[in-house]
Amino acid sequence: MPDFYQHDLVTTIHDLRTGQLDRLEEMLRSATKQSKIGLVLPVTASDMRAEPFDVIVRELIEADYIDTIIVSLGVAPERSDYEATLAKVAPLGSRARVLWTDGPEVQSLYGELNEAGIAVDTPGKGRSVWTAFGYLLADPDIDTFVLHDCDIVDYDRTLLARLCMPMAHPALDFEFCKAYYARVTDRMHGRVVRLLVTPLVRALRQTFPASEFVQFVSSFRYPLSGEFSLTRNLARTNRIPCDWGLEVGTLAEVYRNTSLKRVCQTDLCRLYEHKHQEMSLENKNSGLIRMATDILTTFYRTLASQGVQMSDASFISLRASYLRTAQDCIRQYAADALINDLKYDRHSEESTIDAFAECVTMSAEVFKSDPSGTDAIPNWTRVRAAFPKFTDRLRDAAGS
Q1: CB 174 within 8 A of CB 262
Q2: How far apart are CA 386 and CA 221, in angstroms?
């Protein structure tokens, strides 16, 4: 929404409703004559066959400032999935390549890394993104890496242009840009951000007030957005988590590897809509409960890696602070929904924060039993040190 508010640590690029798509794309075409952009589209077989992916492909035909488009296809065990994806992206021409992460060529490459002690055996969005970054790193002319999800219902090229511009324009010097937006239809969505992450970060600031990382995360308006852009250097040096902690883990790596003044967030000027996860209160290993648990343990492990001491008393205080803060948030969301004529089920929201409060405690037990957890995928600096030609072989696997 239009405003001028700037957070302490992260530059915010607002949508003031004055920028025009044709002007943005004209500037991007000029900028990318010297600095090329690679776009990563992580997609599953089911999302590839859904209508939003068709819309995305149609819009990308006109985004001629994008040099390379990597469709990283995962959760796609059948060759027919790969062939269907090739057919769908054919209108994009030679700019587009499909990396079939379940295919025999890529799986063989994963096997070599696993045998060498470089663990890449956990499938998921994280590995798909990491693999696509490796493909792009083999091209020395690509300076900006951009990523967005493929289940965006109301996608158009404005989203992509606003995500690329902070990184590509020569007058700017950002190294990482994260998107934010309002997930609204006839009601508010984004329950994990609204009801878990936002009050959790506020509670973490109270419990661990000396943590600059917590303050850093609190500067982002939508910390779990799946849309971001970054420099070639960060794509090479950042490690990528495999689980639902991907977005928080990415912020932790950005915090570790670059100057905070070179981080920004951009408003994608939309009421953003994509598919929703089930709450699955009865199943702790799926849906939003699994997502919440992974996010929480990622927070705990990141703080521990930065030397923050976490005791049983800390977790008791954190849960109490989270509950109180989340209840305050519900009162705020209810007022927002009423004034904006949105449906709002306050009882359901209260039940959700009760479930998330259980996750705060449950994740603490997971953390205490395994403070390090599953390692993130090693960064590409390490892989290329061990296998100097690996990214070239990855390009061969995608048929380039």
Answers
A1: yes
A2: 38
The C-alpha atoms of residue 395 and residue 276 are separated, in whole angstroms, by: 33
User: Rounded CA gap, 351 and 368, in Å?
Assistant: 26
List residues bridging with 71 in a β-sheet: 41, 98
What would the pLDDT profile of 176-228 be if each residue is shown by its tens digit? 999 999 888 899 999 999 999 999 999 999 999 999 999 999 999 999 999 99
| Cβ neighbours for 26, distance < 8 A, ≥ 6 positions apart | none
The secondary structure element, H or E, covering residue 269 is strand 263-271
Burial 164-183 (b: 16+ CB within 10 A, else e): bbbbbbeeeebbbbbbbbbb
User: Given pLDDT bands bounded at 50, 70 and 90, which one contains residue 78?
Assistant: very high
Structure tokens at 56: 């995305």
Residue partners of 330: CB distance under 8 A and separation at least 6: 195, 346, 349, 350, 353
Whole-model pTM: value is 0.94
- Asked if the model's pLDDT at residue 278 lies above 80, the reply is no
Residue pointed to by tokens 């209108």? 91
Residue 280 CA to residue 159 CA, distance in Å, equals 31
Domains and CATH numbers, the chain: 11-371+380-395 (3.90.550.10)
Q: H or E stretch including 241?
A: none
Rounded to the nearest 5°, which phi and psi values hold at 101? Answer: -70, -20
Q: 222 near 190, Cβ under 8 Å?
A: yes
Q: What angle do CA 253, 38, 380 make, to 5 degrees?
A: 40
Q: Measuring CA to CA, how many Å separate 246 from each of 32, 109, 170, 241? A: 29, 23, 29, 5
Going across the sheet that includes 11-13, the strands are: 11-13, 263-271, 176-182, 228-231, 142-147, 36-44, 68-74, 96-100
